Amino acid sequence: MPVEKLTDRRPEIGADELVTTLVPPPRFDGVRFSTYVPNADEPSQAAAVEACSAFADRVAASGQQKSGWRSLFGRKPEVEGKPGLYLDGGFGVGKTHLLASIWHAVPGPKSYGTFVELTHVVGALGFAEAVRRLSEHRLLAIDEFELDDPGDTMLVNRLLRELTAAGVFVAATSNTLPDKLGEGRFAAEDFLREIQALSAKFGVVRVDGPDYRHRGLPDPPAPVTDEELLASAEARPGSTIDDFDALCEHLATLHPSGYGRLVDGVAAVHLRGVRPAGDQSLALRLVALADRLYDRAIPVLVSGESLSGLFTEEMLAGGYRKKYLRAVSRLTALARDAAASPVPR
Asked: What residue ranges define each of the domains in the chain, with the CATH number in brackets?
């Protein structure tokens, strides 16, 4: 039986699905505060669990109060404290685990999505309709919060201003402090007022520590031969196999918010002829794909060059450095999963 290709898939998400599908990805279905294991050498991690748990309690309590006030008086009550919580720290310290735990601890209605998914919701529904739908929620959880261009800065600041005014709480993760968003990627000083206004809505919780995905683990597995790659794909039901260059071209035709749907239901991804990304636009698309593969715990096996060389030294020295390092970390973990999973005979 021929092995399926991702390049043959063209996922589409209807406008009505956009908000209803804003939930944590499968990898984080079962996470809770109780399942987060703080690093004993990093006290900020235990403190972050406490801060996130307290924030979730405040959201739940305020949500109940908000419903009552709205039904009686048609307006929201004043809420004590900042309406947002911002988890800052390096990659691989469990920020997404904590964000998903907040979401699971808060009664609905609520929404959870990546920054890219959120901006796509606004683009697809229109600003007013997105605000109307999301304003009914108690919590908006935003993973991988980044501002990569001035348009996003203005859009997200306006969106969060509208939502927090409606009584919605916001929790977010990022590798960049909120007053440093956009730094190194566009002329942030030209939009400093917008960025500072955004920053003022968040209380910052720092999460420090080494990347848990690779503590004490060996180097990533080496690429396999093309013959071994094909044999693995044919032996693993539900797998896909694609030429790396062809997949890169295909990704350029899809909005990154659809990458999750692109790989839904795939048992393992096989990429033939991996090489370094040729430009920054492609590199950022590969970051988005890596995140969605990791969300769904899909093993990745490659031929060609190592996944560790996916991004050039020049890219790793630029403003998107943390994104690229996160992608390499996550892809390496998925490559280990593929190597550790026996091929059916």
From this structure: 6-10+213-340 (no CATH), 31-210 (3.40.50.300)
